[in-house]
Amino acid sequence: MIDRSPPKRPTAYAEQSIILAILNHEFPIGSLLPAERELAIELGVTRPTLREALQRLGRDGWLTIQQGKPTRVNDYWKEGGLNVLNALVRYSENLSTDFIPNLLQVRLILAPAYTRQAVLHTPTQVLEYLSGSRSISDTSEDYASYDWRLHHLLTVCSGNPIFTLILNGFAGFYEQMAIIYFVSAHARRISQEFYQSLGESVIRKDADLAENITRETMAASIRLWESHNQE
Residue 63's domain spans which residues? Predict the structure, then answer.
């Protein structure tokens, strides 16, 4: 059921409650939301507050709002934007088991590209960060933190801020999942080899090699994640 806890920020509370109701299939894809008056009472907010929340959800792609017609729940996988993706990350416990593999597939596409650009544009900064990779303590938490900061740095050094904006959408969630991934000593070893090989490619200023190394490692991480979750 919809969370009826007292809202601190009424609009944000209404928005979150509706998103969770969609993800929990209380308001399934293709269904119509209750009338505005009824929904406002159920959420315990004013109708102006509800309207503002609905407008935000409509802009993000969760809902289709048409004057004089009931509000329809969209297929957010097909009609949503980056804000929908950010919300899915925040409420990942409500998602299907293939969400993380799909996310890793996206990283497989993006990471080689921003790594290549980083080596071309700002190799010194990348190499300086990689020089500390051997000092990572052998814990999943420290590897997760180091790996997040590396990828964030690579997006910044790529010179394309869109890469950084996309990655920032997964801040917190990235490390949360990485901690689980790096519990495996094999995963930590693969990443340590990646950091060393990437550092060597940066020293050689070989952006093509850096791109290929990153692609191979990202693909290996998908296989390792899937094998871990099949055990």
Answer: 10-90
